[in-house]
Design brief:
By secondary structure, the chain is of the alpha/beta class. The protein has 12 helices and 22 strands. The chain has helices at about 45-60, 95-105, 135-145, 160-165, 215-230, 250-255, 260-270, 270-275, 290-300, 335-365, 405-420, 445-455, and strands spanning about 1-5, 10-20, 25-30, 40, 40-45, 70-75, 80-85, 115-125, 125-135, 150-160, 180-185, 190-195, 200, 205-210, 235-240, 260, 275-280, 395-400, 420-425, 435-440, 465, 475-480. A 6-stranded mixed beta sheet has the order 10-6-1-2-3-17, sandwiched between helices. Strands 11, 12, 13, 14, 15 and 16 form a 6-stranded mixed beta sheet that branches. Helix 1 crosses helix 3 (about 135-145) and helix 4 crosses helix 9 (about 290-300). The chain is globular.
């Protein structure tokens, strides 16, 4: 599978080949051309574009030339975008009609014959629909270009949704916040503005870093402008190759916005994906440079129903289980049920016959046996029930939510004394936690009482929440100011 991102004069390519062990052998390619390949998401020159893609396929891996399917990632400006709040009283079956009416009214797009799809994001505060549409002419130009190379587009993924996948798991469902995702590379700072539900604005943030305008100055300027417009940034997700040179603490202080480096988010929240993405020996996964391709890969796995290549009423996808899905017509299987009932009844009669016959035989055998004298046996002492979980097998993620320096190490030592072995530390999404939060997987209830009992002397009434079953950790502890 190929994941290709193109924006203006830049090409990024991720090639993946799935192994028998369920892993993905990965190879990467990136190049910035002198001339523009695209402009506002449109191909500028068919021949030049096809030539650039052919070069990428040839260089990235010998096997990539044989690949036929491609996931195309395009910047936000290539799409018509609409975001709408779903009324609380609207039925799930009516959401598709609701968003189609909104799109026709606000975007003037053809929702029946055009290429479009939407996702639904919801939390405790409400539900939002993110609608994307792309013109038939734009899609045809890309299809024609890839046909020249023997490639077929299997999906088109908006760039902002790919980035959103890289930090979506860090969001809290009970808290609304504004987040800027910024990629720092090639002396430019680029990104998008988000809130808890997803991309917030269509305009892409794009500024050039110079000798007189540092990256800190540019980010602070953007943050100040957003605050004036009523969108005070709560967090900055920092990616890109050049972000490796930035210190989190000093950068946060300079820009006045809590900064989360992507290089720390990925190992903590997306460890499972790191395990299945395999690179060549002695090569680490370059997720800071290819964040958009890796984000699109994760998006395609977690949002399999999303497709901008389906038209009209046949389309449909969602990131939420509440999204309506087409139902198949149901035929009542009378013949099959009759056969099942008949076979079940015959089996039951035969079973009762053999049970009766064996019962009579065993009675006759028992009457011929001497009566045994039964001696009373001593009742064994009641044993203490063993716990259903072993602390050594529990994976704990310990996150600093209070900002207290050295506190994470103290708590980690405490957990080690209790018998826990696998404890990973890090920072929470912010340092404003007043109350400690314990997140435990819902499929193992014994963990609730175990961890609460082990920490009862340190935190009396922690907030208990359910942890995603797909999380690599069994327990996440976000300690706040109340942790003694």
């Amino acid at each position: 599978m190929l994941y290709l991102f193109t924006d203006k004069n830049q090409v990024k390519l991720l090639f993946q080949k799935k192994t028998m062990l369920g892993q993905y052998e990965s190879a990467f390619y990136e190049k910035t051309h002198q001339l523009n390949l695209t402009d506002k998401g449109e191909i500028t020159s068919m021949d030049f574009f096809a030539s650039a893609i052919r070069e990428a396929l040839t260089v990235v891996s010998p096997a990539a030339v044989k690949e036929k399917e491609i996931n195309l990632i395009l910047p936000q400006e290539a799409f018509a975008y609409l975001r709408a709040e779903v009324p609380a009283d609207i039925a799930n079956s009516a959401i598709t009609a609701f968003i189609k009416d909104k799109a026709r009214a606000h975007l003037a797009v053809d929702t029946e014959t055009g290429f479009s799809d939407f996702t639904i994001h919801e939390n405790e505060k409400g539900k939002q629909v993110l609608f994307y549409a792309i013109s038939n002419e734009t899609v045809k130009k890309y299809q024609d270009a890839f046909n020249l190379l023997g490639l077929q587009i299997v999906n088109i993924i908006p760039e902002p949704l790919a980035y959103f996948k890289l930090f979506e798991k860090t969001l809290r469902k009970d808290k609304k916040e504004y987040i800027m995702y910024a990629s720092y590379e090639n002396e430019r700072i680029k990104g998008y503005l988000y809130d808890t539900y997803g991309p917030l604005e269509e305009k892409k943030i794009d500024h050039k870093v110079t000798s007189t305008t540092s990256v800190e100055h540019l980010v602070k300027k953007v943050a100040d402008e957003l605050e004036v417009s009523g969108k005070k940034l709560n967090r900055l997700i920092l990616s890109g190759q050049s972000s490796e040179t930035i210190r989190q603490d000093t950068f946060t202080k300079d820009v006045g916005v809590w900064t989360n480096p992507l290089k720390r988010i990925i190992p903590q929240f997306y460890e499972d994906y790191l395990k299945i993405l395999v690179t060549s020996p002695n090569t680490s996964l370059p997720f800071l440079l290819y964040d958009v391709c890796i984000g699109a890969f994760i998006f395609s796995l977690e949002n399999k129903q999303f497709s901008l290549l389906r038209k009209g009423s046949n389309k449909g996808s969602s990131t939420s289980s509440s999204r309506p899905r087409p139902t198949a017509k149901f035929r009542f299987p009378i013949k099959e049920i009759a056969l099942f009932v008949g076979s079940f009844g015959l089996s039951f009669i035969l079973l009762m016959f053999f049970m009766k016959f064996n019962g009579q035989k065993s009675i006759l055998q028992e009457t011929n046996k001497p009566t045994a004298i039964v001696k009373p046996t001593e009742v064994p002492p009641t044993s203490t029930p063993t716990p259903s979980v072993n602390r050594k097998d529990i994976k704990i993620k310990l996150l600093n939510g209070s900002g207290a320096k050295g506190k994470a190490s103290e708590i980690k030592d405490l957990l080690k004394e209790k018998g826990y072995v696998d404890v990973l530390t890090g920072n929470a999404d912010n340092f404003d936690y007043k109350k400690t939060e314990l997140q435990v997987k819902s499929d193992n209830r014994a963990l609730d009482s175990l961890i609460k009992g082990d920490l009862k002397d340190n935190v009396s009434a922690p907030k208990m929440t359910k942890l995603d079953k797909d999380s690599p950790a069994d327990i996440v502890i976000i300690f706040g100011e109340d942790f003694k």
